């Protein structure tokens, strides 16, 4: 049930490989801060892997290193066998905030990804953009501006924008953190369908144990700062997963293992 960080799913080849990655910063006052320490992890092609851990343990930093938006202090990061030494372009990224352009409607916010890429024709991708918006439940809202959409709708636009160029790797940094519980459930179902049908590799950052167990093939549990890999949990729940899987003993068992790891590494403190 617990697997080595350097293992991948059966038959999978590596998509992401981290070896002894550490990341150190300096505060505005010059004090050194170690966000990540000696992180090694392999993620296979087509895997859905979630990273869970307390605030400040370097989860988002790890995602930024894989995206090439930051460089690690030490260690190596590679994607599809190539060292990450610059910003990655053949990926999709979704952040907690949708970061939409207020003056562009939903459809045009999705298509901005195409406009920014050389050699891609906006007209050729319009049909795909409409299909993605339809898939996430936004048919009829294509011409609405962001301020005319709910928070969940705006996040669906952001996910569609990240997928418009059909990237093989999707990086998601707490995309549902600001949503209400009902909207979260719908987003879980939407993401489940998109990733299952598309066969994408997904790295999903979350604070939610429930989200991680529902979506993932494997879950990486991080320690408090400096962030290290505490353990990696294989999730053996049959797909496709319905929301009712959360009511099963197996789901409860996996959630309990993660909470136990947090108690053991100090991320949770239980004082009776």
In brief, what are we looking at here?
This protein has helices at residues 59-67, 106-115, 122-135, 151-163, 181-198, 209-215, 249-265; strands at residues 2-3, 14-26, 32-44, 48-52, 74-79, 82-83, 91-94, 169-173, 201-206, 218-222, 229-234.
Layout of secondary structure:
Elements: E1 2-3, E2 14-26, E3 32-44, E4 48-52, H1 59-67, E5 74-79, E6 82-83, E7 91-94, H2 106-115, H3 122-135, H4 151-163, E8 169-173, H5 181-198, E9 201-206, H6 209-215, E10 218-222, E11 229-234, H7 249-265
Parallel strand pairs: 4-9, 4-10, 7-8, 8-9
Antiparallel strand pairs: 1-11, 2-3, 2-5, 5-6, 10-11
CATH class of the largest domain: Alpha Beta
What count of helical segments does DSSP give?
7
- What is the CATH superfamily classification of the largest domain? P-loop containing nucleotide triphosphate hydrolases
Q: Biggest sheet, open or closed, and with what strands and sense?
A: 7 strands, mixed
The gyration radius over C-alpha positions equals 19 Å
Low-confidence stretches: none
The CATH topology label of the largest domain is Rossmann fold
Structural class: alpha/beta
What does this protein look like?
- The chain is α/β, with parallel strands linked by helices and 272 residues long.
- Helix content is 32%, strand content 25%.
- The protein contains seven helices and eleven strands.
- It has helices spanning 59-67, 106-115, 122-135, 151-163, 181-198, 209-215, 249-265, and strands at 2-3, 14-26, 32-44, 48-52, 74-79, 82-83, 91-94, 169-173, 201-206, 218-222, 229-234.
- A hairpin with a 5-residue loop joins β2 and β3 (32-44).
- The longest helix has 18 residues, at 181-198.
- It is globular and about 55 Å long.
- The protein starts with a strand and ends in a 7-residue tail after the last helix.
């Amino acid at each position: 049930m617990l697997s080595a960080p350097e293992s991948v799913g059966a038959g999978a080849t590596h998509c992401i490989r981290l070896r002894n990655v550490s990341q150190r910063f300096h505060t505005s006052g010059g004090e050194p801060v170690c966000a990540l320490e000696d992180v090694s992890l392999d993620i296979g092609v087509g895997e859905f892997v979630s990273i869970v851990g307390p605030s400040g343990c370097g989860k988002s930093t790890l995602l930024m290193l894989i995206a090439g938006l930051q460089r690690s202090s030490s260690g190596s990061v590679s994607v599809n066998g190539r060292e990450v030494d610059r910003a990655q372009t053949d990926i999709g990224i979704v952040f907690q905030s949708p970061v939409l352009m207020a003056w562009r409607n939903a459809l045009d916010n999705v298509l901005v990804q195409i406009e920014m890429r050389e050699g891609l024709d906006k007209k050729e991708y319009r049909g795909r953009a409409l299909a993605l918006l339809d898939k996430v439940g936004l048919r009829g809202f294509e011409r609405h501006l962001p301020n005319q959409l709910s928070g969940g709708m705006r996040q669906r636009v952001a996910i569609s924008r990240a997928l418009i160029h059909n990237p093989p790797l999707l990086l998601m940094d707490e995309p549902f953190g600001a949503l209400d519980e009902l909207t979260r459930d719908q987003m879980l179902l939407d993401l489940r369908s998109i990733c299952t049908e598309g066969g994408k590799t997904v790295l999903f950052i979350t604070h939610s144990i429930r989200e991680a167990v529902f979506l993932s093939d494997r879950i990486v549990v991080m320690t408090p700062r400096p962030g290290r890999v505490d353990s990696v949990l294989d999730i053996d729940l049959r797909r496709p997963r319905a929301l009712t899987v959360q009511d099963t003993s197996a789901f409860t068992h996996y959630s309990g293992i993660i909470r136990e790891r947090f108690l053991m590494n100090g991320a949770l403190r239980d004082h009776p």
